[in-house]
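Hey, I was hoping to borrow your eyes for a little while. A protein chain has come my way and I'm curious about its shape. Take your time with it, there's no hurry, and the full record follows here:
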Amino acid sequence: MVFASTWVLVLVKDGLAALLACAVIVSTALSLYLLLLAVASLRRPRPASVRGTSATRFEILVPAHEEELVIGKLLDSVNELDYSRDLFGVHVITDHCSDQTASIARSLGATVYERSDPEPRGKAQSLNWLVTHLLDGDAGDAIDAFVVIDADSVVSPNFLREMALHVQSGAQIVQGLVQIDGAGTNVNSQLRALAYEFISHVRPLGRSALGLSAGLRGNGMCITRECAARYPWDPQSLTEDYELHGRLLAAGLRVAFAPAAIVSTQLPQTLAVARKQSERWESGRLDVMRHHVPALLRDGLRRRSWASIDGALELIIPPFSILAALTVVIFGLSLLSGIGPLIVVSAIAVVAQCLYTMRGLRLASTRNPHIYRALLFAPLFVLSRLWRYVVVLTRRGRVQWTPTVRTPPP
């Protein structure tokens, strides 16, 4: 009886050690991969310069739902673009709006389309309808590319010039740099802006330097007319940018990154709205992960395409705050286990996470000098994100799309 009990304890101990070893290997591999992207992001991108007059024709698409508080600031920035006004049009499609979005957009020179069909609704459906309408129009053949900008954003004056340079160099899909505007002194907003800096700045810079696909953010992106016609947005997806990127990678296409083409966007101003938005994003990302990761990994290994493998890894990697917390926990468990190799390897993961974090902090601090002070509250922020992630993983049924509640711009 004593022998049997000892045998069971040995099996349990060995099994736990094996699980811990797997966790250490996975967390370290992901942490080192993020560090690789951070190191690659240090490479200075080739500066864009305009030579002569660009002849690239753009159509700017702005999907809007109850955006009267923010649409004016966006269109003011669009009207100040340093690009020939004869070479771009501005189209606002209002999706079931009951406010003054349409009238404000018209007063600022945009062409407005009002949709009121009961179903379906949402950003993807609006964009698909508008792209088809414009391509089928009399001027459809003159369009070179479409640019998608969210209504709560502001674009840099050089935005279209930068996009034109990439399109003229052969890029079929281009993602601009999306930055959070107005984080202010609110600690939670600062930490959310920092988390976004990793996704929209550090990683795309690194991927661009390594010749990979920069990914899509759903805002500030440019897609040529041929790609827009061939690869419509999926109206059923909660995160149409992730879903579209998966299909583009499967087709062998890569997204170029234009860090000088800047789009500034707002964060939700209340925790309740931010929580709903975060849960929708994570639910949509997990749904895309289930559908695209196996195919991307299989295709990447078969064709030796690092872009496809990287696209799968981007979907697999959990939010940075959660991965960092899990890495620290795994390091602590390795210390408790007393297993030397696990301690060393998990310590490497912690160091990699620290260096990756320093790269994001360096970029974020140029716009938000208070970010280092906000790090004191990072543990509470991480616990909150962990709880929301657990809620998303354990939720039954599909999360329904809901529009983000807007607040007046600062």
Remarks:
- The chain has 14 helices and eight strands.
- Residues 69 and 406 are 7 Å apart (CA to CA).
